[in-house]
Amino acid sequence: MKTFVAILGVIGSLAFLSIFFEKYLIGSVSSKGKSDEVTNNIHASNTTETIPISESTATISSWKAHNKYGQINLYPGELPGYTGWFRPGKTLAGYFKLISHKIDENDNYAMNVTCEHKECVPGRSKFYVRAYGPAIVTGLVREYKDGSYEILIPLSDPGDYTIEVVLTFSNVPDFADFPLQHADRDPDYEGYLLPGFPLIIHVPISTVKQKKRPERNIICTKDQLTENTLESALYKGQWKVKDSIRVAKERQERPISMDGYKIGINSLGIFTDYEFSDCRLLSNINRKGEKHMMDKCFENAANMERLHIIFIGDSVMFLEKDYFTNLVKSSKSDVKITQLSDQRGLAMTLENIQNQLQKIQKENPNETRVIYFNAGLHDINVYCAYDQGVTRKKMKETKIWGDDFACIDKYQDFMIQFLDFLETYPTSLKVFRSSTAAWHRYGNFGFGWKKMNQPYTKTHHFVDKYNQIAYDILKKYPSVHILDGYWLTLPRPDNTEASKENEAGKHMAHPGLAVTDVLVRKWFTFLIRHLCSDIIDQSF
């Protein structure tokens, strides 16, 4: 944690990332060489046509640095595939078949796959989906009773994409069956590409919607940042590839550092930025020589003498808290930041959180108070995972837990208790951040071999399920706003927390520096919009 905080002092905001790449990535040119034309059959709209792939995708070496639309285009294989720990040799991946694929009317690359094996059970196979080219994108997987699966990947930029569909689990129990009572372990992560993948496609500009997109020079409003459904954030923005070491005009010695590794220059060698389709986040928040945005806010906001920001969550939330603290540390305003932990899950921490919040209210009744909270990852790990059976046994002995239970039901029960409490707790703002897509595996790099399995309960599939439960519950609590943490993190298993020690737990569960920057600036933008929206409109 000390290392992370030290880096925050250097970085400040996304402005640093831009300066870093301006300094070390000097210019951009296309690589030389004439490519041969290759083709790929796809369905455009409702018809089938053969579309040439620009700048041949036959081999990696034949690709140019930029596609014909002027965008940097990642090579096939330029983002890491599976290089993590061991995985089992038994899988149904080879029995899946790609039935159809097309670009639909909503700019989704739509695919249908099915399994042709007697052990395949409809809805029980799980997947990880990623596409990369001019952007890094994930997608939706929908299950059908006939045993087929529809995969939708929104592609808003023209160019060449590498499509990956990975079978993460062949056949898993229903979520309601967890924690498993009659098994010796949870299912293990597989992580094998389906036959026919990676699939390389070209998306011409003619298939991307021609309607004029809103200008991105406006700062995002609260409505633009708020999520109302589990899937809405997927269509609001994407990770765009902004720069790459390999497009530099000349070979130069560049400093190798942990900072550079964390933001991607000394690891992947690329620079990405998350762009919303119709707005942008605040940046340059503590620009030298200018009044801090928070100070402007205090001057404008009526009756706000002290602002108390309360972060409630686990270690991922505390990474955000540390980054946020760095953003506001140069402010001269009276801003207090508190963190309350729900590590070990709400069943064991909710009472203490409520007591601490009541104490805060009693000691500072007149302060302007906001709460930014999350609960999910520890509730999954402690209450669903097979290897946490000893912990649950102790909870049963101390009457915290009943005899038989489904962990998803317990999460729902404790979330309702927490939200009922918050409903009457005096605050200016309450925001729930959906759980991040933790426990990445596909795409992780930087490890030696470890004989250590990744169980189903420690994957993004359980996070997705818990987020769905949270969204459904929060419909009954309109005073609580929702910000996305899931779709922002799911496409980026390549950007997770790194350190000199490279602790496995942090590297698998925590977002990296590039991702954390966007999470925090989104929360900061939302907060300033709530407290003093006019200041943003006057300043930008």
Would you kindly provide a written description of the structure presented here, covering whatever features stand out?
It is built from 14 helices and 18 strands. It has a domain at 258-539: Rossmann fold. The chain is globular. The protein is of the alpha/beta class and 540 residues long. Helix 5 crosses helix 14 (513-539), helix 6 crosses helix 14 and helix 8 (377-384) runs antiparallel to helix 10 (407-424). The chain has helices at residues 2-11, 14-24, 222-225, 258-263, 293-300, 315-328, 346-363, 377-384, 389-397, 407-424, 460-474, 486-489, 504-509, 513-539; strands spanning 38-44, 47-53, 96-103, 108-115, 126-132, 135-137, 140-143, 148-154, 159-169, 192-193, 199-203, 237-244, 270-276, 307-313, 335-341, 368-373, 429-433, 480-483. The strands form three sheets. Strands 5, 6, 9, 10, 11, 12 and 13 form a seven-stranded antiparallel sheet that branches. Strand 1 (38-44) and strand 2 (47-53) form a beta hairpin.
Provide a concise account of the structure shown:
This protein has a domain of 282 residues: Rossmann fold, CATH 3.40.50. It is built from 14 helices and 18 strands. Helix 1 packs parallel to helix 6, helix 6 packs across helix 14 and helix 8 runs antiparallel to helix 10.
**How many beta strands in the DSSP annotation?**
18
CATH fold-level assignment of the domain at 258-539: Rossmann fold
Beta-strand percentage range? 15-25%
Question: How many individual helices?
Answer: 14
Unreliable residue stretches: 1-62
- The pLDDT mean sits at 83
Structural class based on helices, strands and sheet pairing? alpha/beta
- Round the Cα radius of gyration to an integer and report it: 24 Å
- Please report the distance between the alpha carbons of the first and last residues: 34 Å
CATH homologous superfamily assignment of the domain at 258-539: SGNH hydrolase
Instruction: Return the CATH architecture of the domain at 258-539.
Output: 3-Layer(aba) Sandwich
